[in-house]
Amino acid sequence: MTGRLDGKVALITGGARGQGEAESRLFAAEGATVVLTDILTSEGQTVASEIGGQFHHHDVRDAHSWSSIVKQTLTDHGRIDVLVNNAGIFRIASMADTDQALWDDTIGINQTGVFLGMQTISPSMVENKSGSIINISSIAGLRGAGMAIAYAASKWAVRGMTKSAAQELAASNVRVNSIHPGIIDTPMIDEFDNAGVRQRTVDRIPMGRVAEATDVANLALFLASDESSYCTGSEFVIDGGFTA
Ligand SMILES: NC(=O)c1ccc[n+]([C@@H]2O[C@H](COP(=O)([O-])OP(=O)(O)OC[C@H]3O[C@@H](n4cnc5c(N)ncnc54)[C@H](O)[C@@H]3O)[C@@H](O)[C@H]2O)c1
């Protein structure tokens, strides 16, 4: 049976659980060689062994770690066709409660991590004249997020970096798009329970339910595959109508 990603090599950050795990599993099932990275070592190793992929411990804030993982992947597999910049954190905190550590962590992981990923991997894609970079933003990168100002800042930055990188790389046939999920059922949304706002948040979704991680993985699959060969610099919203 032919897969939609046959012959492609995909690197997925934050692949140990949640959406990154769903993307790792789906991409492997569609024929990709998957290299997944995370700070959660045992969960990441389990996913990698179940899908016949590779795991590297990796903090996306660390430029040195990015260089060595990309170098290793190019040595092992010869190319990287797809990068999913998925790793992220989400904390609910008002402006007053956003201390320097929370700000630095959020911007470091959600924004700088995405930049470093694109900066480190794109040269080999440019050389191959082929590649798809998928940056996971959020609906918080399309509108305001009261009580999550650092998160919104980081996700708007992802949207802006995506469009800038798309313009820079388009002539080399390297595509860069952002995905903007609404509320997805992963460990991340425990934060809504911690803040006591889960039901109120779900009530604002026109479709009346949260999405599964596999819903986002299916969209990422389209962007990773050649089916999306004319899509670049675009925002793909998947939110059950939240921002409609
Ligand atoms: N769940 C949602 O409702 C939702 C909505 C919009 C956007 N998103 C975005 O989707 C992406 C995936 O989130 P998720 O829902 O799967 O949440 P999740 O918390 O289940 O997964 C996030 C993953 O990122 C990893 N990670 C965190 N810090 C890291 C670091 N410094 N280096 C490397 N890996 C790190 C975590 O260990 C985890 O495996 C994130 O970018 C998130 O902001 C999620």
Polypeptide structure, described:
- The protein is globular.
- 45% of the residues lie in helices and 15% in strands.
- 45% of the residues are buried.
- Strand 4 (82-85), helix 4 and strand 5 form a beta-alpha-beta unit.
- It contains 8 helices and 7 strands; from the N terminus they run βαβαβαβαβαβαααβ.
- Helix 1 (18-29) packs across helix 8 (213-224) and helix 4 (100-128) packs parallel to helix 5.
- The model has no long low-confidence stretch (mean pLDDT 98).
- It is of the alpha/beta class.
- It has a single domain, classed as 3-Layer(aba) Sandwich (Rossmann fold).
- The chain has a 7-stranded parallel beta sheet, sandwiched between helices.
- The structure holds nicotinamide-adenine-dinucleotide.
- Nicotinamide-adenine-dinucleotide binds at residues 13-14, 16-20, 38-40, 58-61, 86-90, 109, 136, 138, 181, 183-184, 186-189.
E-strand count: 7
CATH superfamily: NAD(P)-binding Rossmann-like Domain
Small molecules (ligands, ions, cofactors) in the structure: nicotinamide-adenine-dinucleotide
| CATH fold annotation | Rossmann fold
* Strand residues, percent: 15-25%
Distance between the termini: 38 Å
**What gyration radius follows from the Cα positions, in whole Å?**
17 Å
Average pLDDT: 98
Major β-sheet annotation: 7 strands, parallel
Order of helices and strands: EHEHEHEHEHEHHHE
The percentage helix is 40-55%
Properties at a glance:
single chain, about 240 residues, alpha/beta, Rossmann fold, 7 strands, about 45% helix, binds nicotinamide-adenine-dinucleotide
